[in-house]
């Protein structure tokens, strides 16, 4: 294992994001606008009836959802489709580092950039304006770990969906479908704890809940048991890694480089 190579790939991802830093400004602006819309929506709902945990809890959940989702956002589909379209995929496969690892560590650099320039400012907004409170050092450390596991889950899922590009040669539509489903079921748009019991159980059965709702629960619920939440994330990562490896074995047989 060449740690230096992995660090270089991570740094490359960070520098790439830095070169397009206006994207992070747009992302932060979008998150703030989304938060303002959610504030208006949930304030109206709270005014017309009762909310479990109250309005402040819902808003804290929403802002944490924005912190996490903006930080772990990734576009493996775009990166891979570009390599296929430009014909560089064959050269990538000749490197001593696997294609999966190359993409993973570049995405890790992008994630760190998004965390620093989008996620942390959104968390600051939560602390200053939305009654978000620090959960303590131990639970915050568990939150960071769970968020990192959530990143790995999103990567594993996006790696699986990106394998379809070897057949379609187009990545943007696949990415849009994945992110839409992912955000709907993970807790980005609304708190999952507000769902009816049966529907909440269904959402909890899927891997998406472990991407965003899991770290939020660790941060906000001081009574939540950590081991089951983190253990579930690890199990889903292992399952998705296996599915991703199977998908990659199938995709390698379809490798055709446009123009050569």
UniProtKB/TrEMBL annotation:
Record-linked InterPro entries: ABC-2_transporter-like (IPR010390)
Protein's UniProt keywords contain Transmembrane helix: yes
Range of residues in the leader sequence: none
Record flagged with keyword Transmembrane helix: yes
Bilayer-crossing regions: 25-46, 58-76, 103-130, 142-167, 188-209, 229-249
UniProt keyword list: Membrane, Transmembrane, Transmembrane helix
Domain of life where this protein originates: Archaea
Name of the protein in question: ABC-type uncharacterized transport system, permease component
Species whose genome carries this gene: Candidatus Nanohalobium constans
Species lineage: Archaea, Candidatus Nanohalarchaeota, Candidatus Nanohalobia, Candidatus Nanohalobiales, Candidatus Nanohalobiaceae
């Amino acid at each position: 294992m060449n740690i230096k190579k992995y660090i270089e790939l991570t740094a490359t991802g960070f520098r790439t994001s830095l070169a397009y830093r206006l994207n992070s400004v747009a992302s932060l602006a979008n998150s703030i606008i989304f938060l303002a819309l959610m504030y208006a929506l949930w304030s109206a709902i709270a005014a017309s009836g009762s909310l479990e945990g109250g309005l402040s809890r819902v808003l804290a959940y929403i802002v944490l959802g924005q912190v996490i989702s903006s930080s772990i956002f990734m576009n493996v589909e775009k990166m891979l489709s570009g390599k296929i379209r430009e014909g560089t995929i064959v050269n990538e496969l000749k490197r001593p580092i696997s294609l999966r690892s190359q993409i993973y560590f570049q995405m890790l650099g992008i994630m760190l950039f998004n965390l620093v320039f989008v996620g942390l400012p959104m968390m600051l907004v939560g602390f200053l304006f939305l009654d978000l409170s620090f959960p303590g050092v131990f639970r915050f450390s568990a939150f960071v770990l769970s968020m990192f596991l959530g990143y790995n889950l999103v990567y594993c899922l996006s790696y699986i969906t990106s394998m379809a590009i070897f057949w379609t040669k187009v990545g943007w539509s696949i990415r849009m479908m994945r992110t839409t489903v992912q955000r709907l079921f993970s807790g980005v748009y609304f708190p999952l704890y507000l769902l009816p019991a049966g529907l909440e159980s269904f959402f909890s059965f899927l891997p998406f809940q472990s991407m965003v709702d899991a770290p939020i629960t660790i941060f906000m619920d001081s009574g939540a048991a950590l081991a089951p939440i983190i253990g579930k994330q690890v199990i889903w990562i292992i399952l998705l890694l296996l599915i991703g490896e199977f998908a990659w074995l199938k995709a390698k047989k379809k490798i055709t480089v446009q123009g050569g």
